[in-house]
Sequence to fold (367 residues):
Amino acid sequence: MLLALAQWLAEDVRTFSVFNYITLRTMMAAMTSLIISFMLGPWMIRKLTSMKIGQSVRTDGPQTHLVKAGTPTMGGALILASVAITTLLWGDLHNAYIWVVLLTTLGVGAIGWVDDYRKVVHRNPDGLSAKAKMFWQSLIALAVGVFLWSHATLPAQTELIVPFFKHLVFPLGLFGFIALVYLVIVGSSNAVNLTDGLDGLAIMPTVMVASALAVFAYVAGHAEFSKYLGEPAIPGAGELAVFCAAIAGSGLAFLWFNAYPAEVFMGDVGALSLGAALGTVAVIIRQELVLAIMGGVFVVEAVSVMLQVSWFKYTKKRYGKGKRILLMAPLHHHFEQKGWKETQVVVRFWIITMMLVLIGLATLKLR
Fold:
């Protein structure tokens, strides 16, 4: 019923020719998702609090985080609801890419929701097992890869584009393309989730990267702009700017409640799904490497965990006692252990992300 209502409203709105412009609908999507999140935020926080859906804090983490115990979590559901409603309202529902990113986001969000629900409601500290999470994430990512390959009509839609080099592209083939899609979606999903450990740390970089991806999506969907800037032309990809704007708008509103000291955490339902959303948009518009640049904070956070765990296991097996590279992983906890205040870590990581996003946007022209 909600979908039918959204379709009717969307078609009715577009009877006015001015609303056919992607740029206008992109701006309206950002404003709409912002307003929805602001309106529903206080109600959702009260609801989560009354249901005692509070965050459990790891005892082996920074001791300063123990005061966060009991803070409402699963607030990412607010972002998902806002993004879904906004996309259905302002997006072109005849566009396949809109449905691919929306269903992927909601699908991975469902995985995160089950994980969060088991942790905070069933009081199961392990939540959904790592193998189960990886299985369902992999299934969704592989399905996206197969769909995008089967619906590709141009070579540019399945090639690896190297930023800063105008003619350096690599044909991937079926298995190479699907493997890349898998790595990007699953990798970005888990990277954002690992970054979401401090108040506001993950959501603001997500907003900045999503905003930049909206620009790339618009260029990819515009035949003249893509040709002029030397970017791959992906017919229909421009609609993804609307989706990215919805993420940016709802993310900014969520930051209002998630800023230090946070009134609510997004949980896995938000972090996993937002990471998957960014990864899916990137593979559609062929900007996987640019995503790695702009989301450098996410990448480094994920790598820090992998290196920490791998080195600990290796040294324990070789020397009988595990050693650590960092004082604590992920990386943001390492800086906390070195004496940085939580707000210092967060703002400095924001500044780094802003710089990386500007570098990513520079690839539009520097080719």
Observations:
- The longest strand covers residues 159-161.
- The chain has a mean pLDDT of 89.
- Strands lie at 159-161, 169-171.
